Amino acid sequence: MNLRKIGLDTRELDHPEPLEMAIKILQNLDDETYLYMLHRKNPLPLIDLAKEHQFQVLNQEDASKQWHILISKNKLVNLNDLLDV
Fold first, then answer.
1. Do 5 and 82 touch, CB atoms closer than 8 A?
2. Rg (CA), the chain
3. What is the C-alpha to C-alpha distance for residues 76 and 61, in angstroms, rounded to an integer?
4. 3-state secondary structure of 35
5. Is 4-82 assigned to CATH 3.30.110.40?
6. What does the H/E/C string look like for 67-79?
7. Residue 3 per-residue DSSP state
8. pTM of the predicted model, to two decimals?
């Protein structure tokens, strides 16, 4: 399966911009796309919202304390395979 990555780097943005931008992307995700978001914090409100709407979510902090958040509508995808840490 070849998914299209929608990248979103919000490390320099202040709340609520990252959440608002991510929600707009989530509204348009389909089974062939996924969100790959970079953030300086673990965006728990976004993660909770995505899970409530049955999205698959992976959030992981890297060695430089940056968060990688992957969100997909497609339940058959292994998000760990798409993680770039």
1. yes
2. 12
3. 23
4. strand
5. yes
6. EEEEEECCCCCCH
7. P
8. 0.95
Q: State the Cα–Cα distance between residues 55 and 28, nearest whole angstrom.
A: 12
Q: How far apart are CA 70 and CA 59, in angstroms?
A: 6
Q: Taking the domains of the chain in order of start, what are their residue ranges? A: 4-82
Strands of the sheet with 67-72, listed across from one edge? 4-9, 33-39, 67-72, 56-61
Asked, as a colleague might, if the bond just before 16 is cis with ω within 30 of 0, I would say yes
Residues in the chain, overall count:
85
Tell me how crowded residue 33 is: count the other CB atoms within 10 A of its CB.
Answer: 16
* 1-42: pLDDT as tens digits: 689 999 999 999 999 999 999 999 999 999 999 999 999 999
